[in-house]
């Protein structure tokens, strides 16, 4: 390298945990904007010299923004999902893309299992019951439901889904999955679509990518197939579920409960859910522990270093 | 048997799930009283003909009560712990005692893991954050802590403790234990006392019996050894912890958090805990799902049948 590449770190205001690490290795410019227009204003003269972007928020990176970054060679996303990135435009412009790889997988899997036990055993509802003094006043708390032995269908058996499956095995859960294609090396039973997965399980866990094929993959039909004791856990993306229908299904008792870390219009959450005891709500926090933030910082740096030394990326996103 | 044994079922008012099953097999009398005096009044003339008691609540069975039940041969407790039973007096009178054996073990273990993830990943606090509209108002939620890789010390490696250990293994947790004695068949590291267990772990899980040796086994010294990021999970009995000291330790930050299903003076819970976000409270519900209630009903019946056919009990309590 004749000259150090100039790296833009686009991040939420308080997410400064990566700044020092990256700055020790590259000339870094940090900004925080929620739309591409103000970002471009604040970049002003720098835009043309940026050769890498680390996108830590979910800022949309579209053709227009890319057209203002003519030197951009590498885009590092700190999320696993890349639905906010125009990948075809990146491909057209020869921009390489990296994502979070497995940096968050353990934490998301831990949280998915935590949400599942929390819904079945009604842990947050129990906590409210005790704190509000109802235990003393009304006695016995309404029973929860058993996890051991439940049939759990995983929608998207990638790194996170596999970690969830592995964690649920010693609970005596029977695991099956749906994925873009059946995996030959996996012995869990495969269902070819979301409806059959739901119909044959007590719980479905959503941890697949959000794209045109998976948007609203959990619709009314899937929820009816899951049935009145069925539970949905979503640690993927809000858009995987038809949220409006899900609210109806929860209120009407078409399904039994839900543990939701993600929503269609975050941080907006349908208010009808706030009064329900069979629902556990989490503010898109499944991936976030100090441990995983350290992982992602190291991974972003490793991807930057690899790329600018002409080595293969650690966690590349396939552009096809 | 020349005559069917007369069985007294002592239970909380709403816990009628065993009545039908037992009545189909034995002449059954059901009562619900929280002290032995009113129980004896309501039994009146029947007391002398009772040959078995199924004790579903935590009614204290002491020498005085036993002296009014001269025909009693078998006492079936539906709890694992028998600290409410005068076992020496049972032994002296030749009364056989059974407990819940492993009927609740899976559910208690599931709940212990659920409480642990709930405390570390702050699931009930996150749920409150979303429901109160704070996500929209204040943005990002305070990060939780990683479970994967945590060192977990189990205090009491019986059936429940072993199930908890097995469940935590695929989370990458490093398991160790303290028990009345080291178990030769177990490869987990053994610590000879609660202080060294706490000093060498990030989490301690309490699931041992409550008796004179274990009362307040978790005292101030143990909590100081566990340290400011340490977490206590209690699914055993409230009396295992010096609750007054625990409240201080939580408020002062001597320990990091706690997930508590049991308390010293249930249903009383120290009100200082109600305002803490690093605590998850549960109303002694770890063992209770419809599945485990079915288990315990079947087990109580099996113990009664075995005893009155001169067969070995399924889940005997050793009287020594």
TrEMBL record, chains A, B:
InterPro entries: D-isomer_2-hydroxyacid_DH, D-isomer_2_OHA_DH_cat_dom, D-isomer_DH_NAD-bd, NAD(P)-bd_dom_sf
The species this protein was found in: Brassica carinata (Ethiopian mustard)
Superkingdom of origin: Eukaryota
Pfam family, one: 2-Hacid_dh
D-isomer specific 2-hydroxyacid dehydrogenase NAD-binding domain segment(s): 113-286
Residue span, D-isomer specific 2-hydroxyacid dehydrogenase catalytic domain: 46-317
Keyword set, alphabetical order: Glycolate pathway, NAD, NADP, Oxidoreductase, Photorespiration, Pyruvate
Protein name per Swiss-Prot or TrEMBL: Uncharacterized protein
Record flagged with keyword NAD: yes
Top-level taxonomy: Eukaryota, Viridiplantae, Streptophyta, Embryophyta, Tracheophyta
């Amino acid at each position: 390298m004749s000259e150090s590449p100039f790296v833009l770190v686009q991040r939420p205001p308080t997410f400064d945990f990566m700044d020092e690490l990256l700055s020790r290795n590259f000339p870094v410019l940090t900004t925080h904007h929620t739309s591409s227009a103000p970002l471009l204003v604040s970049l002003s003269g720098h835009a043309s010299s940026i050769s890498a972007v680390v996108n830590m928020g979910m800022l949309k990176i579209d053709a227009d923004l890319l057209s203002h970054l003519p030197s951009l060679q590498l885009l590092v996303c700190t999320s696993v999902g890349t639905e906010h990135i125009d990948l075809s435009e990146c491909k057209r412009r020869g921009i390489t893309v990296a994502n979070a790889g497995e940096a968050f997988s353990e934490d998301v899997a831990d949280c998915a299992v935590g949400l599942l036990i929390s819904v079945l055993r009604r842990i947050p509802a129990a906590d409210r019951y005790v704190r509000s003094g109802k235990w003393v006043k009304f006695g016995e708390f309404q029973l929860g439901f058993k996890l051991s032995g439940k049939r759990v269908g995983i929608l998207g058996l990638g790194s996170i889904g596999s970690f969830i499956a592995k964690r649920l095995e010693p609970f005596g859960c029977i695991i099956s999955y749906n994925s873009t294609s059946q995996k030959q090396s996996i012995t869990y039973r495969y269902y070819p679509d979301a409806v059959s997965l739901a119909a044959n399980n007590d719980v479905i866990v959503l941890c697949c990518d959000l794209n045109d094929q998976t948007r609203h993959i959990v619709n009314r039909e899937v929820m009816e197939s899951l049935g009145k004791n069925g539970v949905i856990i979503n640690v993927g993306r809000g858009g995987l579920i038809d949220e409006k229908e899900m609210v109806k299904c929860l209120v009407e008792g078409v399904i039994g409960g839900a543990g939701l870390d993600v929503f269609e219009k975050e941080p907006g959450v349908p208010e009808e859910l706030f009064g329900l005891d069979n629902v556990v709500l989490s503010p898109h926090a499944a991936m976030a522990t100090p441990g995983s933030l350290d992982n992602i910082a190291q991974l972003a740096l490793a991807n930057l270093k690899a790329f600018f030394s002409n080595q293969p990326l650690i966690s590349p996103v396939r552009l096809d």
